[in-house]
Each structure stands twice: as structure tokens, then as C-alpha cells.
Amino acid sequence: MCMISCTHFVHLHVIENKGRWRGSQHIRHLPQPEELVFQLDGTLYKAIDDARVQYKRAADNLDGVTSKFTGYGKTYLRSKKVHPDTHVQLALQLAYYRMYGRPAPTYETATTRRFYHGRTETVRSCTPEALAWSRSMVDPQQNDQTRLQLLKKACDKQNTLMAEAMNNEGCDRHLLGLQVLASEEDIPVPEIFTDKSWTKSGGGGNYILSTSFVGYSSVYGGVSPMCKDGYGCFYRIGQNEIELFVSSWISDKNTNCRQLYCHVEQSFEEMKRLLDTNQMARL
Questions:
Q1: For the whole model, what pTM was predicted?
Q2: What is the mean pLDDT of residues 69-81?
Q3: Which residues contact 135 (CB under 8 A, 6 or more apart)?
Q4: Of 2, 79, 89, 247, most Cβ neighbours within 10 A?
């Protein structure tokens, strides 16, 4: 995120100054850089070689697709009183459900930078409300009015979870602290961390959808999936476009990042049809 923020800052200034340098013309004479010589032993050299092998193995196994959806973006969604990030999160829920016929435990990053030394908290975007709406979208017996009402409930729940997480009222960092403390103090691991529901809900690094909104910027990045049968999905939202990076592991034959991206685009189009054909209360 530091690199994204810095690059976005530079990009904004390039646009503001129309590509022309308007800073100081003074040439500063700085000392020549000096090489830092590290003293390494055999153990460290082996660790470096091992890391190089592991990195190549993971890189060769990673598949990714990045593409720009130009049907609409922030401007349109704001005009419909829909939070753009919430819109994308629900599109991901629908895309996965349409592809697999089941929900996926989902991680979305929430920033806690309003707090001193604050970093992130987890938003668990796979909610009963999102699942109910996803089911309605693939059920031919449901009408658009019902789908719209379920969409509003799903949006409200997602917005609430995000607000709670940004206010340090999430659960995952608290639970991580308990788990780390138990390990450091040689205390028996609390049963919640060995319960099957913990892993099934995404705990312990088992989120099927690992997602993050990088902002309303001109730059963005991506990540690898968190688990072997999962997906990584980072995205940025522009005024009139939504750009995504979706990844999956080649070794897992049940995942396909390109197919998931196609379903996300289909979700965007279907959601726009709902918003365009119905008068919607503020989401």
C-alpha cells in the first residue's frame, strides 16, 4: 500500500502539472553511494538459496488475470447511493456462488489507521444476507423487487461490518492476539482455534476469497490466493471503470481466475440492471 500511495501521489502531481516539472532546478551534489557489505555465513546463504527456489516454485504455479470493466464506476454508483466498495464485494459473492453453488469465506481488508499504530482488521464479507441475495439472483422464481430488497439488506450488513472493523470492533485481530499470547506463554490453545468451524469460516489463513480495495486511485496491485483452492482479488475503482486483479493456483484444477473474473463482470452487469430498473433507497 505504501508503494501504491506514493505512485498515486506522483501520478496526481504529473496530471496537475501537465507532465512538466515545476520544482526546483537546483542540482544538489550528494555523496556517492557506498556499498553495504553484509557478513553472511553458510546458514544464511542456504536460506537465501532456499527462498529463491520457493519463490520460483510459487511464481510458476500462479495464474492471474487483470482487466478493466468499463460499464460504470464510482460516478454511477454514487448517483445510485451505493457504496462502490460494497458493490464490488457483493459482486464477488455472487460470482463465486454462481460458479460453485456455495458461499466462500471471504477476507476484506479494513484500515484502522485512525488509531495510533493501527493497521488493518478483517471484514468477513460472506454474510447470511449476501448469501440470500446471491441465491435470489440465480433463482428464476424470484422477481427483481425481491432481489432488490435482498440486495439492500446485504449492502447494509456489509457497510455495518466495514464501519465496525474500521472502528477496531472486529473480531479477527482480537482472536489473533489471543492465539499468539497462548503460544508465547505456553498456554493450551483455546478450543476455538481447533474447532472445524474456525477453519471453515476462514480462520487460520483459510479464506477462499482474499480481497482488498486499494482505493479510488490510478494504480493497484494484487496478491496470490491465501489457500490452495482460493482466489486473490484486489481492485481499484475509477470514476467510470472498475479494474480487478484476480489470481489462482495452477496446481488446483477446481479454480480458474479467468472464469471467476467473467462471472464478476456478469455480476456487475446484472446489478446495474437492477439499479437502473428500480427506484432504490440509500444503500
A1: 0.90
A2: 96
A3: 97
A4: 89
